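Below is how a single chain appears once it has passed through the pipeline. First comes the sequence as given, then the structure the pipeline wrote out for it. We keep one example in the README because the format questions we get most often are answered faster by looking than by reading.
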Amino acid sequence: MAPHIVVKNLVKRYGTKSVLDVDELVVERGEVLAVIGPNGSGKSTLLRLIAHLEKPTGGSIEFVGGDSAKNDLSIRRRLAFVFQDPLLFTGTVFDNIAYGLRMRKIAKDEIKQRVKEAAEMFGIIHLLDRPANLLSGGEAQRTSLARAFILKPESLLLDEPMASLDPPARESLIIDLSEVLGHMKTTVIYITHELTEAMMLGDRCAFIDEGRIVQIGSSRDVMAYPINQKIADFVGVENILKGRIVGRDNGLARVEIYSSEIEAVSNSELTDKVWVFIRPENVTIALADPANPTSARNCFSGAITKILDLGALYRVVIDCGFPLVVFITKRSIEEMGLYVGQPVWASFKASGVHVVSREGERVYEQV
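Resulting structure:
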C-alpha cells in the first residue's frame, strides 16, 4: 500500500493548553486505522484537524495523490465525515442520502440508482420514504453512513459513530459496516473507545494519550502486546503485575511476582523492574494439579475469591499468592462446579505472558 494521509509535527493548542502533539502519522491508502484512547486524549481533535474543520497551531496534513489543490473546500470534497450523532436533515431517508449528490448537480436517474445501492449496503432500503425524524438511533446512523458512502470519498472519517447506540443496534451495525469496508477501497480513520470495534474494523490500531500517539500497530498486536501499563489497562489485560527479572534462559525470562516466579517468552534486554501482563482469556483453570506435563510452563495453586457473571463469560479471581483474573464460560463453571473459596489450579503458557520495562514509567490507577 502507498501513503494516503501523512501527518507531521501536528500541534493543536487552545491558548496555552496543548491538546495534540503528533510527530508523525501515516495512513495507508485503503486501510482502516482505528484510533483508541481515554476520554479527552485528543482523538476527536485529530480527526477534526484532518478534516480541516479546525486549523492546527502547527505542523502539516498532506493528502497524497488525486486533486493537488490545497484549499479547505477542495480537501473536504475528497472526504466524508460521520459524527457520533447522525445530524440528519428534515425530509425523508432518501433526501438525506441523496443530499451530497444533489449538491454536486448529479443527474436524477443516477442519484436514484446510487441512493438505492447505498441504502441496500446498510439495510435501510425499506426506509427510503420514511421521515428522518421518525428513525431509531440505529436507523439514523445507518442513514448517516449511507449518506457518507454514496459520495465515494477518498477518505472516510468516523468519530465514534456507534457510541450513542444500544448494544443490539451497535452489534448489528458493526457487522454490516465491516462487510461494507471489506468491499470498499476507502481510506478510513475510525475513532472509538470500544475495543470490539477496533478489533473488528481496524487493520491497524493507534493508541493516543494526552495528545500523543503512544503505540501503533496491528489491532491484534496492540491488544496482545501493549507497551505500557496504561495501554494494558485500557485494552482489558486485567492481570497487570509488578515484578522483577531474576534470570534468563533460552529465550525465557524468570520473573519474580511476590514470592512466586513466572516464566515468560522474552528476547528483549529488559531492565530489572518490569510489568507482567497476562490476558484473562490466556489462563486455564483446573480442579487438580495436572498429572502430565503440558505446554503451560506456569502452573499455580490457589483459591477462588470472586466469581462475577458477565453474561457470555464469568470473571473468576484466584488468589495464587498474587491475584489472577480468569475468563471462563458458563458451561465450564457448571461442569466444574466452581464456587468462592474452592481450591483450584491456574495455568498459562510462557507465550501468553507479555513483559515490559517499568523503568521511568508513570503509574496509573486501574479502573
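Residues 363-367 have pLDDT under 50 and may be disordered.

See the next section for the split statistics.
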